[in-house]
């Protein structure tokens, strides 16, 4: 199972500014996944595949992207704002690969679900 935790940069209520807990999603669904074993195939609205994979999650008008390897439960943390911000407007800019010019989704061979 993949758990997504969200941390929000708070400059207004904290002195000095710091991250505060946001929401948590258990058993996350990814907007897109590209499993290592699938020869570049892209799957939409997918749960965790077996083995290693690249992922994209649509978040607040941007993308949280990355790679996961191994098995077992894992926790991924999304940081909104501040020095650790990891939400990007362009999925390709975060190492997620190319994206379609208009839609923001990663470029692939089409979704296979």
In brief:
The chain is an all-beta fold and 113 residues long. It contains no helices and seven strands. The model is unreliable at 93-104 (pLDDT under 50).
Describe it for me?
The chain has a four-stranded antiparallel β-sheet, with no helix packed on it. Helix content is 0%, strand content 42%. Strand 3 and strand 4 (43-46) form a beta hairpin. The relative contact order is 0.24. The protein is elongated. By secondary structure, it is mainly β.
Give me the secondary-structure topology:
Layout: E1 2-10, E2 18-25, E3 30-35, E4 43-46, E5 53-59, E6 62-68, E7 74-80
Parallel strand pairs: 1-7
Antiparallel strand pairs: 1-2, 3-4, 3-5, 5-6
Q: Which sheet architecture does the biggest sheet show?
A: 4 strands, antiparallel
Which class do the helix and strand fractions yield?
Answer: mainly beta
Low-confidence stretches: 93-104
Secondary-structure element series = EEEEEEE
What is the straight-line distance between the termini?
A: 19 Å
Estimated helix fraction? under 10%
């Amino acid at each position: 199972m993949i758990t997504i935790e969200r941390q929000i940069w708070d400059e207004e209520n904290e002195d000095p500014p710091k991250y505060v807990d946001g929401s948590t999603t258990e058993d996350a669904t990814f907007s897109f996944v590209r499993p290592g074993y699938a020869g570049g195939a892209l799957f939409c609205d997918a749960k965790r595949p077996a083995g290693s994979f690249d992922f994209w999650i649509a978040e607040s008008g941007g993308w949280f992207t990355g790679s996961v390897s191994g098995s077992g439960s894992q926790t991924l943390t999304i940081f909104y704002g501040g020095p650790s911000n990891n939400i990007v407007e362009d999925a390709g800019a975060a190492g997620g690969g190319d994206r379609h010019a208009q839609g923001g989704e990663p470029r692939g061979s089409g979704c296979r679900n």
